Amino acid sequence: MARTKDFDEEEVLRKAICIFWNKGYNGTSMQDLVDGLGISRSSMYDTFTDKHTLYVKSLERYQKAADEQVCNLIKSAPGAKAAIKRLLELTVNDLIGDDQQKGCFMVNAEIELASHDDCVKDVICRSVQQMEEAFYMAIVKGQQSGEIQTRQDARALARFISNTIKGLQVSAKSIKERAFFDDIIKTTLSVLD
Questions:
Q1: Residue 111: CB partners within 8 Å, gap ≥ 6?
Q2: Residue 145: predicted pLDDT
Q3: What is the C-alpha to C-alpha distance for residues 122 and 34, in angstroms, rounded to an integer?
């Protein structure tokens, strides 16, 4: 008969995200995970198989939460431009408010592992595609309503904005100056006029 788990798997994944986000994949030891997750080594192996599987599941959990947040923000905004502006501002506020300057967990994973880890690359590619698609749908809606110019292709604009957010996330690892980020937001929004 299988044993029941004496821990909440979602809570363990939230803790794992924090550990990996702070230390990176290569900087996180098994002992860091055992200590930080509050579960035994055997429970971790029984549930997640190994460190790599736990890392990939953590990325997937992070991606799911981020995608939900983006979709909700876009749906609740009064218009496409407002949604994009809110998302840019939310990203900057989160980054500037991070005293540890961790950047984005997903971007950090892309930089550290994606070039040589197909599982990580797949999670990141799905995340990029979902973000791009959310922007694309908002931009198309904005173009149809006349709120956003139609001189440029909606897909190209979505890719540009998605990549701009990634650039903000990388820059925030070393820059905290609000004016720097405000200039980027203002310029990014100007391509929609």
A1: 170
A2: 94
A3: 27
Please report, to the nearest 10 degrees, the dihedral formed by the alpha carbons of residues 12, 13, 17, 23 taken in order.
50
> What residue type is assigned to position 135 of the chain?
F
First-to-last C-alpha distance (Å) of the chain = 63
Place of tokens 């720097």: 180
Task: Please calculate the CA angle 153-72-141 and round it to the nearest 5 degrees.
Answer: 30
Task: Give the C-alpha separation, 21 to 31, whole Å.
Answer: 16
Name the packing angle between helices 51-76 and 9-27 (round to 10°): 110
Quick check: 67 and 131 in contact, CB under 8 A? yes
Q: Which residues contact 181 (CB under 8 A, 6 or more apart)?
A: 92, 95, 96, 168, 171, 172, 175
Q: Which residues, other chains included, contact 182 with Cβ-Cβ below 8 Å and sequence gap of 6+?
A: 92
**Residue 119: which of 166, 183, 185, 57 has the closest Cα?**
57
Give pTM, 2 decimals.
0.89
Question: What are 108-126's pLDDT values in tens digits?
Answer: 999 999 999 999 999 999 9
| Separation between Cα atoms, residue 50 and residue 97, nearest integer Å | 33
Query: What count of residues does the chain have?
Result: 193
